[in-house]
């Protein structure tokens, strides 16, 4: 299991997979493409690399026999070791600075001219 080549596309996909890991859910390829705003070939190349490295697993959607026709979805999730590796690779989102205090009333307004005198 070779370590995948770290690219911006891979980091985008890993970030989404980490969110799904934290929420204990799975995501399918179309969700990933839409969320990270990357093309299908790019996303599926990344997913193949991650699966080859053992960082993710994929499983096909199970449907009852009487379900509407259409392609089945393939769902992906991080493996426990993949989640650890992803946390090492994906940068922690920048912290949002605390809100600035509001200026006192009248601050920044044009001062009224003082009477001459």
From TrEMBL:
Ranges of biased composition (kind: Pro residues): 94-104
InterPro entries: Metal_resp_DNA-bind_regulator, Tscrpt_reg_PadR_N, WH-like_DNA-bd_sf, WH_DNA-bd_sf
Entry-linked Gene3D superfamilies: Winged helix-like DNA-binding domain superfamily/Winged helix DNA-binding domain
Record domain Transcription regulator PadR N-terminal: where: 23-87
Region ranges (Disordered): 60-117
Any Pfam family hit: PadR
Name listed for the protein in its UniProt record: PadR family transcriptional regulator
